[in-house]
Amino acid sequence: MSEQSGRADTLEERVTHLENELYQTQTTLHRLVVVLEMEFGKDFDGNGHVG
């Protein structure tokens, strides 16, 4: 039983790590889109405005 509990903690930690990594990737992509929009003056993400 304790082995299963250890696996769950490890899995939770892995999921938390992946969620954090996904958040950082999304944040980086958003910043990149903003910079590209400002540089080219175009709305690349379709949100209705540049930047």
Notes on the structure:
This protein is mostly helical and about 50 residues long. It has one domain. About 75% of the residues lie in helices and about 0% in strands. The protein has 1 helix and no strands. It is rod-shaped. The mean pLDDT is about 90.
Describe what is shown at a glance.
With 51 residues, the chain is mainly alpha-helical.
Oligomer: single chain
How much helical structure, as a percent, in the residues?
over 70%
Determine the N-to-C terminus distance: 53 Å
Uncertain spans:
none
Characterize the largest beta sheet: strand count, sense, and whether it forms a barrel. none
Number of strands: 0
Element pattern in H and E: H
Structural class: mainly alpha
- Residue fraction in strands: under 5%
Shape descriptor reads rod-shaped
Total domains, how many? 1
Q: Helical element count?
A: 1
The average pLDDT is 88
> How many whole angstroms does the radius of gyration measure?
19 Å
What would the keywords be for this entry?
single chain; 51 residues; 1 helix
Sequence-ordered SSE layout with sheet pairings:
Elements: H1 2-40
